[in-house]
Write a structure and sequence with these properties.
By secondary structure, the protein is an all-alpha fold. It has one domain. It is built from 9 helices and no strands. The longest helix is centred in the first third of the chain and has 17 residues.
């Protein structure tokens, strides 16, 4: 087990039953001092970290250079922020959100030789928004290839 996985598990175990409440955007918003959009970004970030630091950590490590490149050159977030990332849940989770996931998956796939990187980018974003946007999905999951031993 890697140090990151141990650290994530320790953090999660320490928070215990309060973990979900601590990252829930609606609870954060009700506490005051934040807009719902900012609270959603924090919620999204923690859910992404959960995804990245669990079983998918090995995919991220194996593809980190191309994933970092894809994040730097991608215009997906800029387009999504302009068109949908507002306080209105209809636009927040509407067709633009799915277009955003498709864009991320394409950018990651185009920048990385390993198909799982495209899935990883899309799924990391989907997991981040899944609590509010339950209909999001990856448009092109990678094929599972069986290998004879």
């Amino acid at each position: 087990m890697t140090i990151a996985k141990i650290a994530r598990q320790t953090f999660y175990n320490t928070m215990g039953k309060t973990y979900e409440a601590c990252i829930n955007c609606y609870i954060i918003f009700r506490m005051g001092g934040s807009t719902i959009s900012n609270a959603r970004v924090l919620d999204h970030l923690f859910r992404q970290l959960q995804f990245m630091c669990s079983a998918q950590f090995d995919i991220w490590v194996a593809n980190r250079d191309c994933i970092n490149l894809a994040q730097r050159v991608s215009k997906c977030a800029d387009i999504y922020d302009i068109t949908a990332h507002e306080d209105d849940p209809v636009t927040f989770c509407g067709p633009n959100a799915q277009d955003y996931l498709n864009c991320v998956q394409t950018d990651y796939t185009d920048n990385c030789a390993y198909k799982m990187a495209g899935w990883f980018g899309c799924e990391r974003e989907r997991v981040g928004w899944a609590k509010d946007c339950v209909t999001l999905f990856e448009f092109n999951s990678p094929e599972i290839v069986e290998v004879e031993l």
